[in-house]
Design brief:
elongated; 3 strands; 5 helices; 118 residues; 3-stranded antiparallel β-sheet
């Protein structure tokens, strides 16, 4: 078998593949929008166009449980540090900061901050 007999079919195949790849544009499907009022990571912590937490959750405890679930996605959440005392865990902290360096809030402070009533 001569070099030409091997090279010509390979060149034709390569040309065909390159033409097919160049013609095919990647199709990226847009993600569907979340249902109206659905609490997500972005609507909960970043998007100020959504209603406040006290209009989306029945109680402060429901909201704190939601924030705790978001903690799995690296969002700050509140953990109970004592009776009626909550510590904000996550977010940016100075290098070497330990759990004692996280800010703490009373239940009353969180009720006022997020607009809930006991």
């Amino acid at each position: 078998m001569t070099r030409r007999a091997v090279f010509c079919p390979l060149a034709g195949l390569l040309t065909l593949l390159l033409t097919a790849c160049a013609a095919a544009e990647p199709q990226i499907a847009a993600a569907p929008p979340p249902p109206a009022g659905a609490p997500t990571a972005m609507t909960d912590l970043d998007d100020r166009s959504q209603p406040p937490p006290n209009q989306r959750f029945a109680t402060l405890d429901d909201y704190l449980a939601h924030r705790r679930r978001l903690g799995a996605q690296d969002y700050p959440f509140y953990e109970e540090a004592g009776p009626g005392l909550y510590r904000l865990v996550g977010g940016r902290r100075p290098r070497g900061a330990g759990p004692a360096d996280y800010p703490t809030y009373t239940r009353e402070q969180l009720l006022r901050r997020y607009g809930f009533r006991e």
